[in-house]
Amino acid sequence: MARYSAWTVFKNGLTGQKGWGRAWRDPEPKKAYDVVIVGAGLHGLATAYYLAKNHGLKNIAVVEKGWLGGGNAGRNTTIVRSNYMMPGNRQFYEHALKLWEELSHELNYNVMFSQRAHISLFHSPGARDAAARRYNSMRLTDTPAELWSLEQLKKEVPHLNYHSARFPIIGAAVQKRAGTARHDAVAWGYARAADQLGVDIIQNCEVTSVSRDGSQVSAIETSRGTIQAKKLGFAVAGNTSRLWQMAGLGRLPIESHKLQAFVSEPLKPLLDQVVVFGVGGAHFYISQSDKGGMVFGGDLDWYKSYAQRGNLPIVQDTAEAATSILPCLGRVRLLRHWSGIMDMSMDGSPFICKTPLDNLYLNAGWNYGGFKASPASGWYFADLIANDRPHEVIQNMDVKRFERGVMIDERGAGPDPKLHG
Amino acid sequence: MIRINCPFCGERDHSEFSYGGDASIEYPALDAPPEQWHDAVFMRENIRGMQSETWHHASGCRMWLVVERDTLTHEIQAVRPAHPAIAQALEDEA
Ligand SMILES: Cc1cc2nc3c(=O)[nH]c(=O)nc-3n(C[C@H](O)[C@H](O)[C@H](O)COP(=O)(O)OP(=O)(O)OC[C@H]3O[C@@H](n4cnc5c(N)ncnc54)[C@H](O)[C@@H]3O)c2cc1C
Ligand SMILES: [Zn+2]
């Protein structure tokens, strides 16, 4: 399959866009693979890509029950940042951000990564101190971070509610290298690049059971027949517990919750950055897409759910938060809203780890921050599968960390999955 | 909006309630081994389908309820007070 370049764009522009072929193949599943990854979301596709690219593995399949990128990959609000504080998370997300910075070149696919800055507002001296602590911690891992005064903020983001907000804005913590990317393009880019390295991406192929031979996984049963796997990886986001139980492994420190997202009608350029507002019970984040739509979201729906549809009270909460910090949105119409199923973990941090079965590996627990993680998630999960040991950066990202008393709890919210973000 | 039929207040919007979580968790004795506490605090079955869960009628009678709800369809099959003695008293009355 041809490489994309400025030249091919130009040539196809002159020849009626007739020269574009398929971006990836549509193969029949083979009987057996060296590695099978379940779930063609961002994490599964990135894992397959790095298995082939970094570790030279050849015989790899990604199986997906629907279409690739149809899960949370295509449902998120596309925020990419690395403003984490806890050891482990800091190194992990900074590595992810460095991969993002090169991703379009790496994949030969424009993922529209836009480092437009991520601005977290604060509304009290206490919140400012907490932000200063977090942003100073980031600097320990060489992640540049800034605190902005109210004056600077007003200059950079003029439309915020500086005059009548219930919680007056007093400044902001800013990560300038953070921003957004086009989520579908990331899925497609990884799919195309993995396919070019020989990975079979098999869509409409639902895993219905997992066959075991003692402490080994031997095969998976799918809607397209039995597939044998020497190594098996799960990257199924909100459906993790189901797959885990198919493998006969019982309980996990995960609950499935749903999160909604919203996009407005397209507007002229209004907001150049990602702006985040969080005070008391309110939580709100917003950016403007290249098409002009305001893309935003808030909290979870507050109760466990596997239904990919949202409830109305959260629509109201989110609209209230929107108009309280950006009153100019008051009469903007909503174009679409949707929801996705989150694998919320007990401390808000993920799992990339080995499992009680020798040749089964787990990638899960992304809460609602897994988009930004995808390149590093694939990178470290591939490293784990290929070398059969966790890299030191992910050494505490295992499901057993709670037994050791290790919580990677960025929010300090405790073991209640719905409270993590 | 999910509607929950509170045994004391009648059918109300779920926004009057706050969500507790999995009602099937049994907390061990205070001096039980840490492994048992670990399992109760951290491990979840995370059912896709009918599950027992607790809801608090925070903006109503303030009773804790046990609700049998399908986590895929949100359909509710039964609601009862979480306190067994109160549930029993209601049943005796009925
Ligand atoms: C509304 C919303 C907003 C979000 N906003 C952000 C954000 O701004 N920034 C950020 O960093 N993160 C965000 N996230 C989180 C992020 O989208 C997820 O953490 C991430 O996409 C999860 O990884 P994934 O892409 O691999 O998951 P998915 O795309 O969900 O992939 C999992 C795949 O597994 C497949 N699958 C499930 N069961 C089976 C089976 N039995 N057999 C075969 N296949 C199966 C599913 O069909 C699915 O395609 C948001 C999520 C949502 C829903
Ligand atoms: Zn009541």
CATH architecture of chain B: 2-Layer Sandwich
Biggest interface goes to: A-B, 26 and 25 residues
Question: What low-confidence regions of chain B span 5 or more consecutive residues with pLDDT below 50?
Answer: none
Kindly provide the radius of gyration of chain B, computed on alpha-carbon positions and rounded to a whole number of angstroms.
15 Å
* H/E series of chain B: EEEHEEEH
Counting copies of identical and different chains, the oligomeric state is heterodimer
| Mean pLDDT rating of chain A | 96
Largest sheet composition of chain A = 8 strands, mixed
- Give the structural class of chain B: alpha+beta
Count of separate structural domains of chain B: 1
Radius of gyration of chain A, Cα only, in angstroms?
Answer: 21 Å
- Provide mean pLDDT of chain B, rounded: 96
Predict the CATH topology of chain B. Folate-binding fold
Summed up, the helix count of chain B is 2
Low confidence ranges of chain A: none
Structural class of chain A: alpha/beta
Number of helices of chain A: 9
